[in-house]
Please model this.
Amino acid sequence: MKVLFATDGSDDATVALRTATRLLSPIDRNLDLLCVAPAFPKKRPNGKKRDEYEQRILGETTQVLQEARASLPSNAGQIQLVSKIGSPASVIVNKSEDYDVTVVGSKGRGVASDVGLGPVASRVVEHGLGAILVGRELKSEDGVRVLAAVDGSDASLHAVEVLNALFDLRSGEVCLMHVAETPWIQWGLEEEAWETASEEDQESSESGMMEKELVREGERVIEQARELLRGQRVSISTRIDEGTPANEILSEAERGQYDLIVLGAMGARDLKHRMLGSVSSRVAWDAPCSVLIVREPEDAD
Model:
């Protein structure tokens, strides 16, 4: 397994590195620690000053990388240090295609108890290729609690495959979650009109019948995901909720004290137009725990 660990020496990056070494499978793990220094300002003269700058900045990145390596446990795996000069986000995004997982830190909870991504992490999550792991502080001392949100798309099922193949699920718990959008959303109704209708009217209405169909579809999707985890020594639970997907996923993540949320992301495949879906983007920004975003396979129809 090839893992790219991006670090800038910050506390957030250090937390992400330690979290990733706990979450990822320890088997055959090869880690590249990457530190990207900003390029010499174009407005300044070239020549000797540029050479001096690059020599100095590469020395600083080497120190950052050595400190990052020292912060990792002895069983982290084979580690290689990589220094680059350029735009940090662009370098990480371009290199991410060559790795099974790319790990970035987030700015974490602020004074106002907000969760979010820094500017570099935000661009990597949005444009990165393959699997992107946003590492945040773990809640569990032993084992991990994973919330895998599945919607039946190739992207979400591929995310479960990546979870199964690359993460250490021993003694862990996985909750497979499907969110069916509530009928008043599906049919463009006002929430108040739907909620004030009688239970009999709700069940007999078109939207009520659609609701039942959505639940049946959710059960089928969850069973598909469960099959992908068959053979793992992991406790699996399931839940089907109704509502707005991002809201329900974030609420369950907070309520269940999970260590990791797993999501698939679809979108244009060219880098210029690649964007996260609204659910993946919202969860990556607002989750109280680590988030794994996995793009749909490149050969998907």
